[in-house]
Design brief:
Layout lengths: L11 H10 L19 H4 L4 E5 L7 H10 L2 E4 L5 H4 L9 H12 L3 E9 L5 H4 L5 H18 L4 E8 L13 H6 L3 H13 L4 E6 L6 H16 L6 E4 L2 E3 L4 H12 L4 E10 L10 H20 L6 E6 L29 H10 L1
Parallel strand pairs: 1-2, 1-9, 2-3, 3-4, 4-5, 5-6, 6-8, 7-8, 8-9
Bound molecules: ligand G3I.
Ligand G3I binds next to loops.
Length: 356
């Protein structure tokens, strides 16, 4: 049985890897790994270096200090999504995203909004709206204007539509948004509403597994082209790049290059390299760590191969391993550039060498 390579359930790799992990893929503690010395990542790159962040992280002086020192752009990891903002009664709450926006402003960091429309989140307040298209369309427009308008002049861009393409590449995902406003029209409307709400913000179509599933990548590229042809105000494309240490580097390079050929801005929007999801392939931790560092380097090289004008940002989905979402799948995973103590890893050094 082939498990779906889902990001939200246990992935095929995690199941295989998990079993083999018990077979002795013992990983040394960070303290046993030779330290590497890397200047602040944002001081090396000619493009913005982003990180995902949660409001709670900003209450930790060590972590918030690392974020301010290393990153030049913040993406709220979940608190600018409908799951946080939209209350069950249809009201909105902005305390956490406002705290992240304030931290960005005080520390001179860019703010990137994530995400407006996502198949994975359709809050009860929207589900409860009557079937009439008018009231739903008005609520949809109102939400986008309320959120984008709130950060007008600060947010440099938005993931307007997230993960619209079906995992098998056969068309687009079904969602409350597609059912109520049309499979393609809901996307065009979202871009149009976001443009109206903040004409200066760069507007992105974002997706994942583009480097793992060439058929999905092809459908994503066609969707971006169709949005452009339809006159939707799309400025860029985001490739999340949640990959594992066994990722084929050629597909990684091809993905970023093909996205660049659209002529739009390119955002590596959620980069991390899982070791655990590749444990079924490599038999020991050293090989996994080497594979991870190589992929950090290859991702940096591929991004640097883009014209400078198209390099929107390179965003890590967190800086320290301790905060990675992948820890929920395997607490031993270490996918990020800094270890749990905030020390740079070999992967960070490999990335830094290629962007400097
Ligand atoms: O912090 C609260 C906690 O106080 C509360 O008790 C608990 C109750 O459920 O929720 C906690 O918040 C959770 C939050 O992560 C912080 O851990 C939310 O429930 C949970 O939904 C949220 O998950 C986020 C997920 O997207 C869904 O929004 C992950 O952090 C985040 O890493 C993940 O990011 C996604 C991208 O948006 C899209 N690409 C894939 C990526 C990974 O799945």
């Amino acid at each position: 049985m082939i498990l779906p390579n889902s990001l939200y359930g246990l992935s095929r790799r995690a199941v295989v890897g998990g079993a083999l992990a018990l077979a002795g893929c013992q990983r040394p503690a960070s303290s046993q790994v030779a330290p590497v010395h890397v200047p602040p990542l944002k001081s090396l790159a000619s493009f913005p270096v982003g990180t995902a962040v949660q409001a709670v992280h900003l209450q930790d002086p060590v972590l918030s200090g690392l974020i301010a020192a290393q990153a030049s752009q913040l993406t709220p990891e979940w608190e600018m999504k409908m799951e946080y903002i939209v209350r069950d009664d249809g009201g909105f709450r902005f305390d956490a995203p406002d705290a992240i926006a304030a931290f960005a402003r005080v520390n001179g960091l860019r703010l990137f909004g994530h995400t407006l429309i996502w198949y994975a989140q359709s809050p009860p307040a929207f589900e409860a709206l009557d079937e009439s298209r008018v009231s739903f369309a008005e609520a949809y427009r109102n939400y986008i204007h309320a959120v984008v308008g709130r950060y007008r002049g600060q947010a440099v861009g938005w993931d307007v539509v997230n993960e619209a393409v079906a995992e098998d590449g056969e068309g687009w995902r079904d969602s409350l948004w597609s059912r109520r406003l049309g499979p393609f029209d809901h996307m065009v409307l979202a871009f149009q509403h976001a443009r109206e709400a903040d004409p200066a913000a760069r507007l992105f179509l974002n997706d994942y597994n583009l480097e793992w599933l060439p058929k999905k990548r092809a459908t994503f590229l066609r969707l971006a082209e169709r949005l452009m042809a339809a006159g939707a105000p799309i400025d860029g494309v985001g490739t999340q790049t949640h990959i594992a240490a066994d990722q084929d580097p050629g597909e990684l390079r091809r993905t970023i290059a093909e996205l660049g050929q659209l002529g739009l801005l390119v955002h590596v929007s959620e980069f991390d390299v899982s070791l655990s999801r590749a444990e079924g392939v490599f038999k020991d931790w050293r090989r996994l760590a080497e594979g991870q560092a190589a992929l950090y380097a290859q991702a940096a090289e591929a991004f640097m191969a883009l014209p400078a004008s198209q390099r929107f940002a390179f965003t890590f989905w967190g800086l320290r391993d301790a905060e990675s979402w992948l820890k929920r799948e395997d607490g031993a995973d270490t996918p990020l550039p800094f270890d749990e103590f905030g020390q740079p890893k070999a992967a960070a050094a490999a990335w830094a060498e290629r962007v400097a």
